[in-house]
Protein backbone atom coordinates (compact mmCIF):
# COMPACT_ATOMS: atom_id res chain seq x y z
CA UNK A 1 0.00 0.00 0.00
CA UNK A 2 1.15 3.64 -0.41
CA UNK A 3 3.29 4.91 2.44
CA UNK A 4 1.04 6.69 4.98
CA UNK A 5 1.17 10.47 5.08
CA UNK A 6 2.38 11.35 8.58
CA UNK A 7 0.97 14.87 8.24
CA UNK A 8 -2.54 13.52 7.65
CA UNK A 9 -2.27 11.10 10.57
CA UNK A 10 -1.23 14.01 12.79
CA UNK A 11 -4.46 15.79 11.77
CA UNK A 12 -6.72 12.97 12.98
CA UNK A 13 -8.43 15.02 15.69
CA UNK A 14 -9.20 17.82 13.23
CA UNK A 15 -10.50 15.36 10.61
CA UNK A 16 -12.75 13.62 13.13
CA UNK A 17 -14.17 16.95 14.34
CA UNK A 18 -14.96 17.98 10.78
CA UNK A 19 -16.65 14.67 10.00
CA UNK A 20 -18.74 14.89 13.19
CA UNK A 21 -20.03 18.28 12.11
CA UNK A 22 -21.33 16.63 8.93
CA UNK A 23 -22.52 13.36 10.53
CA UNK A 24 -23.45 14.06 14.15
CA UNK A 25 -24.19 11.54 16.89
CA UNK A 26 -22.66 8.09 16.47
CA UNK A 27 -21.87 8.53 12.79
CA UNK A 28 -18.09 8.79 13.22
CA UNK A 29 -15.92 6.01 14.68
CA UNK A 30 -12.42 6.99 15.82
CA UNK A 31 -11.55 5.04 18.99
CA UNK A 32 -8.87 2.35 18.34
CA UNK A 33 -10.91 -0.57 19.71
CA UNK A 34 -13.99 0.48 17.72
CA UNK A 35 -11.96 0.59 14.48
CA UNK A 36 -10.94 -3.09 14.72
CA UNK A 37 -13.97 -4.45 12.75
CA UNK A 38 -12.98 -2.23 9.82
CA UNK A 39 -9.34 -3.40 9.62
CA UNK A 40 -9.93 -5.80 6.73
CA UNK A 41 -12.53 -7.10 4.33
CA UNK A 42 -13.06 -10.68 3.12
CA UNK A 43 -9.36 -10.91 2.20
CA UNK A 44 -8.49 -11.15 5.88
CA UNK A 45 -4.80 -11.91 5.30
CA UNK A 46 -4.31 -8.14 4.99
CA UNK A 47 -5.18 -5.74 7.79
CA UNK A 48 -4.78 -2.03 8.39
CA UNK A 49 -6.42 0.20 10.98
CA UNK A 50 -8.06 3.21 9.30
CA UNK A 51 -7.66 6.79 10.50
CA UNK A 52 -11.44 6.98 11.12
CA UNK A 53 -14.74 5.59 9.88
CA UNK A 54 -17.72 7.73 8.93
CA UNK A 55 -21.22 6.27 8.52
CA UNK A 56 -23.48 8.71 6.65
CA UNK A 57 -27.23 8.22 6.24
CA UNK A 58 -28.06 10.60 3.37
CA UNK A 59 -26.72 11.46 -0.06
CA UNK A 60 -26.23 15.03 1.13
CA UNK A 61 -23.93 13.83 3.92
CA UNK A 62 -21.91 11.72 1.48
CA UNK A 63 -21.58 14.76 -0.78
CA UNK A 64 -20.39 17.00 2.06
CA UNK A 65 -17.93 14.38 3.32
CA UNK A 66 -16.33 13.91 -0.09
CA UNK A 67 -16.29 17.65 -0.79
CA UNK A 68 -14.52 18.35 2.53
CA UNK A 69 -12.05 15.49 2.08
CA UNK A 70 -11.31 16.65 -1.46
CA UNK A 71 -10.59 20.21 -0.29
CA UNK A 72 -8.39 18.95 2.56
CA UNK A 73 -6.57 16.22 0.60
CA UNK A 74 -7.93 13.39 2.77
CA UNK A 75 -8.11 9.92 1.21
CA UNK A 76 -11.38 7.99 1.28
CA UNK A 77 -12.04 4.25 1.05
CA UNK A 78 -15.70 3.39 0.27
CA UNK A 79 -16.98 0.25 2.02
CA UNK A 80 -20.17 -1.79 1.77
CA UNK A 81 -20.56 -4.97 3.81
CA UNK A 82 -16.83 -5.70 3.67
CA UNK A 83 -17.26 -9.08 1.92
CA UNK A 84 -14.77 -8.23 -0.85
CA UNK A 85 -12.34 -11.11 -1.44
CA UNK A 86 -9.72 -9.00 -3.24
CA UNK A 87 -8.93 -6.41 -0.58
CA UNK A 88 -11.02 -3.78 -2.34
CA UNK A 89 -12.14 -2.26 0.96
CA UNK A 90 -8.78 -2.53 2.72
CA UNK A 91 -8.40 0.73 4.70
CA UNK A 92 -5.53 3.22 4.72
CA UNK A 93 -3.70 4.30 7.85
CA UNK A 94 -4.01 7.90 6.66
CA UNK A 95 -7.49 7.58 5.15
CA UNK A 96 -11.14 7.65 6.11
CA UNK A 97 -13.41 4.64 5.56
CA UNK A 98 -16.78 5.73 4.18
CA UNK A 99 -19.19 3.00 5.32
CA UNK A 100 -22.50 2.75 3.48
CA UNK A 101 -24.23 0.28 5.81
CA UNK A 102 -26.93 2.77 6.89
CA UNK A 103 -28.15 3.15 3.29
CA UNK A 104 -30.32 0.06 3.76
CA UNK A 105 -33.78 0.96 2.46
CA UNK A 106 -35.69 -0.24 -0.59
CA UNK A 107 -37.05 3.02 -1.99
CA UNK A 108 -39.42 1.78 -4.69
CA UNK A 109 -40.59 -1.39 -6.40
CA UNK A 110 -41.94 -0.67 -9.88
CA UNK A 111 -43.50 -3.83 -11.28
CA UNK A 112 -44.78 -2.03 -14.39
CA UNK A 113 -41.18 -1.32 -15.38
CA UNK A 114 -39.85 -4.50 -13.71
CA UNK A 115 -37.32 -2.70 -11.58
CA UNK A 116 -36.54 -1.76 -8.00
CA UNK A 117 -34.84 1.36 -6.67
CA UNK A 118 -32.72 0.55 -3.63
CA UNK A 119 -30.02 2.06 -1.47
CA UNK A 120 -26.54 0.54 -1.77
CA UNK A 121 -26.56 -0.98 1.72
CA UNK A 122 -29.48 -3.30 0.90
CA UNK A 123 -28.28 -6.89 0.79
CA UNK A 124 -28.39 -8.79 -2.47
CA UNK A 125 -30.88 -11.30 -1.07
CA UNK A 126 -32.89 -8.43 0.44
CA UNK A 127 -34.00 -7.35 -3.04
CA UNK A 128 -35.42 -10.79 -3.80
CA UNK A 129 -37.13 -10.95 -0.39
CA UNK A 130 -38.84 -7.62 -1.15
CA UNK A 131 -40.41 -8.83 -4.40
CA UNK A 132 -40.75 -12.62 -4.13
CA UNK A 133 -44.30 -12.49 -2.74
CA UNK A 134 -45.34 -11.03 -6.10
CA UNK A 135 -43.50 -13.69 -8.08
CA UNK A 136 -40.33 -11.74 -8.88
CA UNK A 137 -36.64 -12.01 -7.94
CA UNK A 138 -33.24 -10.40 -8.50
CA UNK A 139 -31.12 -12.68 -10.68
CA UNK A 140 -27.44 -12.08 -9.74
CA UNK A 141 -26.82 -14.22 -6.65
CA UNK A 142 -23.24 -14.34 -5.29
CA UNK A 143 -22.65 -17.04 -2.69
CA UNK A 144 -22.37 -14.24 -0.13
CA UNK A 145 -25.79 -12.87 -1.13
CA UNK A 146 -27.14 -13.09 2.41
CA UNK A 147 -24.54 -10.50 3.49
CA UNK A 148 -23.08 -8.70 0.46
CA UNK A 149 -24.74 -5.44 -0.55
CA UNK A 150 -25.94 -4.07 -3.86
CA UNK A 151 -23.45 -1.19 -3.68
CA UNK A 152 -20.58 -3.65 -3.36
CA UNK A 153 -22.07 -5.75 -6.17
CA UNK A 154 -21.95 -2.68 -8.41
CA UNK A 155 -18.37 -1.92 -7.37
CA UNK A 156 -17.18 -5.45 -8.21
CA UNK A 157 -19.66 -6.35 -10.98
CA UNK A 158 -20.62 -9.45 -8.98
CA UNK A 159 -22.18 -12.51 -10.58
CA UNK A 160 -23.19 -15.73 -8.87
CA UNK A 161 -24.39 -19.18 -9.77
CA UNK A 162 -27.10 -17.93 -12.17
CA UNK A 163 -24.98 -15.44 -14.11
CA UNK A 164 -24.50 -17.85 -17.04
CA UNK A 165 -28.08 -17.31 -18.24
CA UNK A 166 -29.08 -14.08 -16.53
CA UNK A 167 -25.85 -12.09 -16.52
CA UNK A 168 -23.69 -10.27 -14.02
CA UNK A 169 -24.59 -7.12 -12.12
CA UNK A 170 -23.87 -5.01 -15.20
CA UNK A 171 -26.58 -6.89 -17.14
CA UNK A 172 -29.14 -6.27 -14.39
CA UNK A 173 -28.30 -2.67 -13.52
CA UNK A 174 -30.41 0.11 -15.00
CA UNK A 175 -29.20 3.23 -13.21
CA UNK A 176 -27.46 4.69 -10.20
CA UNK A 177 -26.89 7.87 -8.27
CA UNK A 178 -23.19 8.60 -7.86
CA UNK A 179 -21.34 11.12 -5.72
CA UNK A 180 -18.01 12.25 -7.17
CA UNK A 181 -14.95 13.09 -5.09
CA UNK A 182 -15.66 16.81 -5.42
CA UNK A 183 -19.11 16.31 -3.87
CA UNK A 184 -21.04 16.56 -7.13
CA UNK A 185 -24.09 14.27 -7.31
CA UNK A 186 -24.79 12.75 -10.74
CA UNK A 187 -27.35 10.29 -12.08
CA UNK A 188 -26.48 7.64 -14.63
CA UNK A 189 -29.14 5.66 -16.46
CA UNK A 190 -32.64 5.24 -15.05
CA UNK A 191 -35.60 2.92 -15.37
CA UNK A 192 -35.22 2.56 -19.12
CA UNK A 193 -33.27 -0.32 -20.60
CA UNK A 194 -31.00 1.86 -22.71
CA UNK A 195 -29.81 5.30 -21.60
CA UNK A 196 -28.69 7.91 -24.10
CA UNK A 197 -25.08 9.03 -24.47
CA UNK A 198 -21.87 7.38 -23.39
CA UNK A 199 -22.16 4.22 -21.31
CA UNK A 200 -20.90 5.78 -18.10
CA UNK A 201 -22.98 3.29 -16.11
CA UNK A 202 -20.86 0.55 -17.68
CA UNK A 203 -17.70 2.42 -16.70
CA UNK A 204 -18.80 2.76 -13.08
CA UNK A 205 -19.93 -0.87 -12.76
CA UNK A 206 -16.89 -2.85 -11.65
CA UNK A 207 -14.81 0.26 -10.96
CA UNK A 208 -14.05 -0.92 -7.39
CA UNK A 209 -14.74 2.38 -5.66
CA UNK A 210 -12.13 4.30 -7.66
CA UNK A 211 -14.51 6.65 -9.48
CA UNK A 212 -17.27 7.64 -7.08
CA UNK A 213 -19.57 6.53 -4.26
CA UNK A 214 -22.90 4.96 -5.25
CA UNK A 215 -25.82 6.18 -3.13
CA UNK A 216 -28.79 4.74 -5.04
CA UNK A 217 -29.22 1.83 -7.45
CA UNK A 218 -31.96 0.87 -9.90
CA UNK A 219 -31.92 -2.87 -10.65
CA UNK A 220 -33.89 -5.07 -12.99
CA UNK A 221 -36.22 -7.64 -11.40
CA UNK A 222 -37.46 -10.74 -13.22
CA UNK A 223 -40.54 -12.95 -12.91
CA UNK A 224 -39.75 -16.33 -11.42
CA UNK A 225 -39.59 -19.08 -14.05
CA UNK A 226 -42.51 -21.50 -14.30
CA UNK A 227 -40.29 -24.49 -13.49
CA UNK A 228 -36.75 -25.01 -12.24
CA UNK A 229 -34.98 -28.35 -11.92
CA UNK A 230 -31.46 -29.05 -10.70
CA UNK A 231 -29.31 -32.07 -11.58
CA UNK A 232 -26.41 -33.49 -9.62
CA UNK A 233 -23.92 -35.23 -11.92
CA UNK A 234 -21.00 -37.12 -10.37
CA UNK A 235 -17.90 -38.08 -12.36
CA UNK A 236 -14.93 -40.38 -11.62
CA UNK A 237 -12.59 -37.93 -13.40
CA UNK A 238 -12.33 -34.15 -12.99
CA UNK A 239 -11.40 -33.77 -16.65
CA UNK A 240 -14.58 -35.59 -17.72
CA UNK A 241 -16.72 -33.16 -15.72
CA UNK A 242 -14.89 -30.21 -17.28
CA UNK A 243 -15.40 -31.63 -20.77
CA UNK A 244 -19.13 -32.13 -20.07
CA UNK A 245 -19.45 -28.40 -19.37
CA UNK A 246 -18.23 -27.65 -22.88
CA UNK A 247 -20.51 -30.33 -24.35
CA UNK A 248 -23.61 -28.81 -22.71
CA UNK A 249 -22.92 -25.32 -24.05
CA UNK A 250 -21.90 -26.65 -27.47
CA UNK A 251 -25.26 -28.44 -27.67
CA UNK A 252 -26.99 -25.06 -27.48
CA UNK A 253 -28.21 -25.56 -23.92
CA UNK A 254 -27.79 -22.54 -21.65
CA UNK A 255 -28.56 -23.65 -18.10
CA UNK A 256 -29.68 -21.15 -15.48
CA UNK A 257 -26.71 -22.38 -13.45
CA UNK A 258 -23.79 -24.69 -14.19
CA UNK A 259 -21.43 -25.20 -11.25
CA UNK A 260 -18.56 -27.57 -10.57
CA UNK A 261 -16.93 -28.86 -7.37
CA UNK A 262 -14.01 -31.27 -6.95
CA UNK A 263 -13.76 -33.99 -4.33
CA UNK A 264 -12.31 -31.97 -1.42
CA UNK A 265 -15.05 -29.37 -1.87
CA UNK A 266 -17.75 -32.05 -2.29
CA UNK A 267 -16.78 -33.76 0.96
CA UNK A 268 -16.57 -30.51 2.91
CA UNK A 269 -19.93 -29.23 1.64
CA UNK A 270 -21.70 -32.54 2.23
CA UNK A 271 -20.39 -32.79 5.80
CA UNK A 272 -21.47 -29.18 6.39
CA UNK A 273 -24.95 -29.22 4.79
CA UNK A 274 -25.96 -32.80 4.00
CA UNK A 275 -27.24 -32.00 0.52
CA UNK A 276 -26.91 -35.57 -0.78
CA UNK A 277 -23.70 -35.09 -2.76
CA UNK A 278 -21.75 -38.18 -3.93
CA UNK A 279 -18.74 -37.98 -1.60
CA UNK A 280 -16.70 -40.50 -3.63
CA UNK A 281 -17.02 -38.58 -6.90
CA UNK A 282 -13.90 -36.87 -8.24
CA UNK A 283 -16.06 -34.01 -9.51
CA UNK A 284 -19.66 -32.87 -9.29
CA UNK A 285 -21.65 -30.73 -11.68
CA UNK A 286 -24.79 -28.93 -10.53
CA UNK A 287 -26.90 -28.08 -13.57
CA UNK A 288 -30.07 -26.03 -13.22
CA UNK A 289 -32.59 -25.78 -16.04
CA UNK A 290 -35.53 -23.40 -15.88
CA UNK A 291 -38.45 -22.28 -18.03
CA UNK A 292 -41.66 -24.01 -19.15
CA UNK A 293 -42.08 -27.49 -17.67
CA UNK A 294 -41.95 -29.26 -21.05
CA UNK A 295 -38.73 -27.47 -21.97
CA UNK A 296 -37.09 -28.39 -18.65
CA UNK A 297 -38.05 -32.04 -19.10
CA UNK A 298 -36.65 -32.12 -22.63
CA UNK A 299 -33.37 -30.44 -21.70
CA UNK A 300 -32.95 -32.63 -18.63
CA UNK A 301 -32.85 -35.67 -20.91
CA UNK A 302 -30.25 -34.06 -23.17
CA UNK A 303 -28.00 -33.11 -20.24
CA UNK A 304 -28.21 -36.61 -18.74
CA UNK A 305 -27.22 -38.13 -22.09
CA UNK A 306 -24.24 -35.78 -22.49
CA UNK A 307 -23.06 -36.54 -18.95
CA UNK A 308 -23.42 -40.31 -19.47
CA UNK A 309 -21.36 -40.09 -22.63
CA UNK A 310 -18.53 -38.61 -20.54
CA UNK A 311 -18.76 -41.36 -17.92
CA UNK A 312 -20.98 -39.81 -15.24
CA UNK A 313 -21.73 -42.52 -12.68
CA UNK A 314 -24.06 -40.52 -10.40
CA UNK A 315 -27.20 -38.73 -11.57
CA UNK A 316 -29.87 -37.20 -9.35
CA UNK A 317 -32.65 -34.83 -10.44
CA UNK A 318 -34.53 -32.60 -8.01
CA UNK A 319 -38.22 -33.50 -7.65
CA UNK A 320 -39.31 -30.59 -5.50
CA UNK A 321 -38.40 -26.98 -4.81
CA UNK A 322 -37.04 -27.96 -1.41
CA UNK A 323 -34.75 -30.55 -2.97
CA UNK A 324 -33.53 -28.08 -5.61
CA UNK A 325 -32.70 -25.54 -2.91
CA UNK A 326 -30.91 -28.26 -0.92
CA UNK A 327 -28.67 -28.98 -3.93
CA UNK A 328 -27.74 -25.32 -4.08
CA UNK A 329 -27.34 -24.99 -0.31
CA UNK A 330 -24.25 -27.17 -0.44
CA UNK A 331 -22.72 -25.13 -3.24
CA UNK A 332 -23.50 -21.79 -1.57
CA UNK A 333 -22.03 -23.02 1.71
CA UNK A 334 -18.90 -24.46 0.09
CA UNK A 335 -16.63 -21.57 1.07
CA UNK A 336 -17.40 -21.72 4.81
CA UNK A 337 -17.49 -25.52 4.63
CA UNK A 338 -13.90 -25.66 3.41
CA UNK A 339 -12.95 -23.88 6.63
CA UNK A 340 -13.59 -27.24 8.34
CA UNK A 341 -10.74 -28.97 6.48
CA UNK A 342 -7.98 -26.36 6.75
CA UNK A 343 -7.05 -23.63 9.26
CA UNK A 344 -7.00 -21.03 6.47
CA UNK A 345 -7.74 -20.80 2.78
CA UNK A 346 -6.98 -18.28 0.07
CA UNK A 347 -9.83 -17.84 -2.42
CA UNK A 348 -8.72 -16.96 -5.95
CA UNK A 349 -10.83 -15.73 -8.86
CA UNK A 350 -9.84 -16.04 -12.49
CA UNK A 351 -11.78 -16.72 -15.69
CA UNK A 352 -10.85 -18.96 -18.61
CA UNK A 353 -12.45 -20.13 -21.87
CA UNK A 354 -14.71 -23.10 -21.07
CA UNK A 355 -12.80 -25.36 -23.45
CA UNK A 356 -9.66 -24.92 -21.36
CA UNK A 357 -11.23 -26.30 -18.16
CA UNK A 358 -9.71 -29.81 -18.34
CA UNK A 359 -6.23 -28.42 -19.11
CA UNK A 360 -6.31 -25.81 -16.35
CA UNK A 361 -7.70 -28.17 -13.72
CA UNK A 362 -4.94 -30.68 -14.47
CA UNK A 363 -2.31 -27.93 -14.26
CA UNK A 364 -3.67 -26.75 -10.91
CA UNK A 365 -3.35 -30.27 -9.51
CA UNK A 366 0.30 -30.32 -10.54
CA UNK A 367 0.85 -26.89 -8.99
CA UNK A 368 -0.70 -28.09 -5.72
CA UNK A 369 1.78 -30.96 -5.56
CA UNK A 370 4.64 -28.61 -6.40
CA UNK A 371 3.74 -26.14 -3.64
CA UNK A 372 2.82 -28.82 -1.13
CA UNK A 373 -0.56 -27.17 -0.50
CA UNK A 374 -4.08 -28.51 -0.88
CA UNK A 375 -6.63 -26.95 -3.19
CA UNK A 376 -10.42 -27.30 -3.30
CA UNK A 377 -12.13 -26.19 -6.49
CA UNK A 378 -15.57 -24.58 -6.43
CA UNK A 379 -16.49 -22.50 -9.44
CA UNK A 380 -18.94 -21.19 -12.00
CA UNK A 381 -18.08 -23.75 -14.67
CA UNK A 382 -20.60 -22.46 -17.19
CA UNK A 383 -18.78 -19.18 -17.74
CA UNK A 384 -15.30 -20.45 -16.83
CA UNK A 385 -15.04 -18.42 -13.62
CA UNK A 386 -12.67 -20.36 -11.34
CA UNK A 387 -12.66 -20.07 -7.55
CA UNK A 388 -9.83 -22.36 -6.37
CA UNK A 389 -9.50 -22.36 -2.57
CA UNK A 390 -5.84 -22.78 -1.65
CA UNK A 391 -5.54 -24.48 1.75
CA UNK A 392 -2.81 -23.39 4.14
CA UNK A 393 -1.99 -22.65 7.77
CA UNK A 394 -1.21 -19.01 8.53
CA UNK A 395 0.49 -20.05 11.78
CA UNK A 396 3.19 -21.87 9.82
CA UNK A 397 5.92 -19.45 8.70
CA UNK A 398 6.00 -18.97 4.95
CA UNK A 399 2.71 -20.74 4.16
CA UNK A 400 0.78 -17.55 3.37
CA UNK A 401 3.54 -16.51 0.99
CA UNK A 402 3.42 -19.94 -0.67
CA UNK A 403 -0.36 -19.68 -1.02
CA UNK A 404 -0.01 -16.25 -2.63
CA UNK A 405 2.65 -17.54 -5.05
CA UNK A 406 0.43 -20.52 -5.91
CA UNK A 407 -2.52 -18.19 -6.52
CA UNK A 408 -0.44 -15.88 -8.71
CA UNK A 409 0.64 -18.85 -10.82
CA UNK A 410 -3.00 -19.89 -11.29
CA UNK A 411 -3.95 -16.38 -12.46
CA UNK A 412 -1.00 -16.19 -14.84
CA UNK A 413 -2.14 -19.51 -16.31
CA UNK A 414 -5.67 -18.12 -16.73
CA UNK A 415 -4.31 -15.24 -18.81
CA UNK A 416 -1.96 -17.52 -20.75
CA UNK A 417 -4.84 -19.73 -21.96
CA UNK A 418 -6.87 -16.72 -23.11
CA UNK A 419 -8.69 -15.80 -19.90
CA UNK A 420 -8.61 -12.86 -17.52
CA UNK A 421 -7.41 -12.09 -13.99
CA UNK A 422 -10.84 -11.82 -12.40
CA UNK A 423 -14.44 -12.71 -13.06
CA UNK A 424 -16.29 -11.04 -10.19
CA UNK A 425 -14.06 -10.57 -7.13
CA UNK A 426 -12.21 -7.62 -8.63
CA UNK A 427 -8.53 -6.68 -8.67
CA UNK A 428 -8.25 -4.71 -5.42
CA UNK A 429 -4.96 -5.35 -3.68
CA UNK A 430 -4.83 -9.07 -4.36
CA UNK A 431 -4.30 -8.92 -8.14
CA UNK A 432 -2.97 -5.37 -8.42
CA UNK A 433 0.63 -6.40 -9.05
CA UNK A 434 -0.46 -8.95 -11.67
CA UNK A 435 -2.17 -6.34 -13.86
CA UNK A 436 0.94 -6.15 -16.02
CA UNK A 437 0.42 -9.81 -16.90
CA UNK A 438 -2.76 -8.92 -18.74
CA UNK A 439 -2.29 -5.26 -19.74
CA UNK A 440 0.64 -3.41 -21.28
CA UNK A 441 1.73 0.06 -20.04
CA UNK A 442 -0.43 1.81 -22.64
CA UNK A 443 -3.54 -0.12 -21.56
CA UNK A 444 -2.91 0.73 -17.90
CA UNK A 445 -2.26 4.39 -18.69
CA UNK A 446 -5.59 4.63 -20.54
CA UNK A 447 -7.40 3.08 -17.58
CA UNK A 448 -5.71 5.51 -15.21
CA UNK A 449 -6.78 8.45 -17.36
CA UNK A 450 -10.39 7.41 -16.77
CA UNK A 451 -9.62 7.44 -13.05
CA UNK A 452 -8.16 10.95 -13.39
CA UNK A 453 -11.30 12.18 -15.17
CA UNK A 454 -13.42 11.26 -12.15
CA UNK A 455 -10.90 11.81 -9.35
CA UNK A 456 -8.06 14.15 -10.41
CA UNK A 457 -6.36 14.20 -6.99
CA UNK A 458 -6.46 10.37 -6.73
CA UNK A 459 -8.09 10.41 -3.28
CA UNK A 460 -10.69 7.66 -3.79
CA UNK A 461 -9.49 4.18 -2.82
CA UNK A 462 -5.81 4.76 -3.70
CA UNK A 463 -3.42 1.83 -3.79
CA UNK A 464 -5.94 -0.49 -5.45
CA UNK A 465 -6.07 -1.96 -8.98
CA UNK A 466 -3.11 -0.11 -10.53
CA UNK A 467 0.39 -1.51 -9.86
CA UNK A 468 1.95 1.92 -10.47
CA UNK A 469 -0.35 4.87 -9.92
CA UNK A 470 0.94 7.83 -11.91
CA UNK A 471 -0.13 11.33 -11.05
CA UNK A 472 -2.67 12.72 -13.49
CA UNK A 473 -0.19 15.37 -14.62
CA UNK A 474 2.25 12.63 -15.60
CA UNK A 475 -0.39 10.81 -17.63
CA UNK A 476 -1.34 14.03 -19.42
CA UNK A 477 2.17 14.86 -20.58
CA UNK A 478 2.97 14.66 -24.27
CA UNK A 479 6.26 13.17 -25.39
CA UNK A 480 8.45 15.67 -27.25
CA UNK A 481 11.31 14.14 -29.26
CA UNK A 482 13.94 16.48 -30.74
CA UNK A 483 11.58 19.39 -30.35
CA UNK A 484 8.64 17.74 -32.12
CA UNK A 485 5.41 16.20 -30.86
CA UNK A 486 4.34 12.81 -32.13
CA UNK A 487 1.83 13.06 -35.00
CA UNK A 488 2.18 16.86 -35.38
CA UNK A 489 -0.52 16.89 -38.10
CA UNK A 490 -3.27 15.95 -35.63
CA UNK A 491 -5.30 18.84 -34.19
CA UNK A 492 -4.67 19.52 -30.47
CA UNK A 493 -7.36 20.73 -28.09
From TrEMBL:
SUPFAM superfamilies: FAD-binding/transporter-associated domain-like (SSF56176), FAD-linked oxidases, C-terminal domain (SSF55103)
Cofactor: FAD
Keyword check for Metal-binding: no
Pfam families linked to this entry: FAD-oxidase_C, FAD_binding_4
Protein's name according to its UniProt entry: FAD/FMN-containing dehydrogenase
Single annotated GO MF: FAD binding
Ranges for domain FAD-binding PCMH-type: 46-224
Keywords annotated in UniProt: FAD, Flavoprotein, Oxidoreductase
Keyword match Flavoprotein: yes
